[in-house]
């Protein structure tokens, strides 16, 4: 097994990325100028509500946006020193699944129901290692299944013969069979009960430690991020509105009002309360975004500048907050 060295070197850097979905009827602004970076061997949690643009950002990295409607209109995605948006499709196919792998949201639909688990993992191995013999491919399949806690004797079973948690392990095995440098996990514990969810997360941590793989964890669950990630980026309406180390975001004194709303929506077992405090309203229509701060219509702390101008990003060490309140030029601080 290859072991990547954990350093401060950036394995992935996304700068000013803008993505739209364009049809004859409307243009959806899905990602609006985000900046993300992941150090080699580290884990970044990308957090936000459904519809915030998290999956679109991941599909942009993999260059798997719908060809008819999705397009990157601005920005760069630099992986291991190369801009993935500029390389040809042949080189991207060599990178995809080999150096970068993705675990998609629903394991039920990620697996082909008419192929055995062995066939599906072997397909990825053979695609990126064409010189391997049939015996070596079979051995790689056995090793990968063992690594995710599945007996190699079950490799000839079909997906319907596995439980939901076991299917997710198979999907993760498929993603890790070529020992990628970066793993993108898009809601990897969706539809799993809490016990299986804990097992899957524990397994992913163990595999990351063993292989030195960097991780982009996409989720709406702050608890998962607290358990699994070194750094956190909070996404709202296609923007990164707060980012920093896990310590910055979870224990820092200053937060974006949206992040505060997310924390207030989490049950506190030590406090007695009649009900949780949800964030009022809904995210803005991505086809008609407001002129000022995208969160302003829902924010209890908004003032005039919030409704008219986009906020700059206030930077305090590793902690970044995109909010007028923390920006001296807005008069909010």
Explain what the structure shows.
This protein is an alpha/beta fold. The chain has helices at residues 54-62, 89-95, 107-110, 117-128, 134-147, 164-176, 194-211, 222-228, 246-251, 257-264, 304-308, and strands at residues 10-22, 27-39, 43-47, 70-79, 82-83, 100-103, 182-186, 214-219, 231-236, 239-245, 313-316, 319-322. The strands form two sheets. It has an eight-stranded mixed beta sheet, with helices on both faces. Strands 2-1-4-5 form a four-stranded antiparallel beta sheet, covered by helices on one side. Helix 7 (194-211) links the parallel strand 7 and strand 8. Helix 4 (117-128) packs across helix 5 and helix 6 (164-176) runs parallel beside helix 7 (194-211). The longest helix is centred in the middle third of the chain and has 18 residues, at 194-211. Residues 1-6 have low confidence and may be disordered.
Computed CA radius of gyration, to the nearest angstrom = 21 Å
- Low-pLDDT runs of 5+ residues are 1-6
Distance, first to last CA? 51 Å
The count of DSSP E runs of length 2 or more, i.e. the number of strands, is 12
- Put simply, the count of helices is 11
Shape, principal axes of CA atoms: globular
The major beta sheet can be summarized as: 8 strands, mixed
Q: Give the neighbour order of strands across the main sheet.
A: 6-7-8-3-9-10-12-11
Series of secondary-structure elements, N-terminal to C-terminal: EEEHEEHEHHHHEHEHEEHHHEE
Mean pLDDT across all amino acids:
89
What is the SS-derived class?
A: alpha/beta
Beta-strand content: 15-25%
Measured as a percent range, the helix fraction is 25-40%
């Amino acid at each position: 097994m290859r072991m990547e060295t954990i350093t401060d070197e950036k394995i992935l850097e996304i700068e000013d990325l803008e993505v739209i979905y364009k049809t004859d009827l409307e243009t959806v602004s899905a990602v609006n100028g985000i900046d993300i970076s992941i150090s080699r061997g580290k884990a970044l949690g990308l957090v936000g509500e459904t519809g915030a643009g998290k999956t679109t950002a991941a599909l942009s990295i993999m260059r798997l946006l719908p060809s008819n409607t999705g397009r990157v209109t601005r920005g760069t995605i630099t992986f291991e020193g190369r801009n993935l948006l500029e390389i040809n499709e042949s080189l991207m196919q060599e990178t995809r699944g080999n150096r970068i792998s993705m675990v998609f949201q629903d394991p039920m639909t990620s697996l082909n129901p008419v192929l055995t688990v062995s066939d599906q993992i072997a397909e990825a191995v053979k695609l990126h290692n064409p010189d391997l013999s049939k015996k070596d491919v079979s051995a790689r399949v056995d090793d990968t299944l063992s690594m995710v806690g599945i007996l190699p004797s079950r490799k000839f079973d079909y997906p319907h013969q596995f439980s939901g948690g076991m299917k997710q392990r198979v999907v993760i095995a498929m993603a890790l069979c070529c020992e990628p440098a970066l793993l993108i996990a898009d809601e990897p514990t969706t539809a799993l009960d809490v016990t299986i969810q804990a097992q899957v997360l524990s397994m992913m941590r163990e595999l990351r430690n063993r292989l030195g793989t960097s991780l982009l964890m996409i989720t709406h669950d702050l608890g998962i991020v607290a358990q699994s990630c070194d750094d956190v980026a909070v996404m709202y309406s296609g923007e990164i509105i707060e980012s920093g180390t896990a310590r910055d975001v979870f224990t820092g004194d200053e937060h974006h009002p949206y992040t505060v709303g997310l924390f207030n929506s989490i049950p506190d077992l030590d406090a007695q309360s009649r009900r949780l405090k949800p964030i009022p309203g809904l995210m803005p229509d991505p086809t008609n975004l407001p002129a000022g701060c995208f969160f302003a219509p829902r924010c209890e702390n908004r003032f005039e500048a919030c409704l008219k101008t986009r906020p700059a990003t206030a930077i305090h060490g590793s902690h970044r907050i995109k909010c007028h309140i923390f920006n001296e030029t807005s008069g909010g601080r």
